[in-house]
């Protein structure tokens, strides 16, 4: 169990259908942190429009389109012993559209994006196949704990087009 978890939820776009609650976001973050044996953590989750997502994705990844989740790990000097993990930026429209396109329940996809982003904040990545396999297996395991099915259980063609977003 976590000693302290602070999730600063920022809603920076209009009219989000079926936006998860603050408690949902905290629960999903907590699931990752408990699994990783992290006792104290602070992070921000910013829910944004496609415009803001595309601007950030273009600026920081040189990819000029809106994406589902961007992770910005905290870059603190070692002498600062703060539990700050960093920031997640999640594009609501992309998440809603992906869930519909992939035939997934919306809460399952929201939770997957949060878990995926938090794992990035903790240093996990999917640049090479071994790292991708490790990260995906953790995501599947954590989502199963939450009662959600394997988010990668769609066709290979679909996986190849969405994994790099």
From TrEMBL:
Per the annotation, how and in what number is the cofactor bound?
Binds 1 zinc ion.
Pfam families in the record: YbeY
Entry keyword annotation includes ATP-binding: no
* The keyword rRNA processing belongs to this UniProt entry's keyword annotation: yes
Keyword set for this entry?
Cytoplasm, Endonuclease, Hydrolase, Metal-binding, Nuclease, Ribosome biogenesis, rRNA processing, Zinc
As cofactor, the record names:
Zn(2+)
Record-linked InterPro entries: MetalPrtase_cat_dom_sf_prd (IPR023091), YbeY (IPR002036), YbeY_CS (IPR020549)
Cite the EC number. 3.1.-.-
Q: What is its main location?
A: cytoplasm
State the coiled-coil residue ranges: none
Q: Where in the cell is it found?
A: Cytoplasm
Q: Which residues take part in binding Zn(2+)?
A: 116, 120, 126
Q: HAMAP family, from UniProt?
A: Endoribonucl_YbeY
Protein's job: Single strand-specific metallo-endoribonuclease involved in late-stage 70S ribosome quality control and in maturation of the 3' terminus of the 16S rRNA.
Spell out the family assignment given in the record's similarity comment: Belongs to the endoribonuclease YbeY family.
Note the PANTHER family from the entry. ENDORIBONUCLEASE YBEY, CHLOROPLASTIC
What protein name does the entry list?
A: Endoribonuclease YbeY
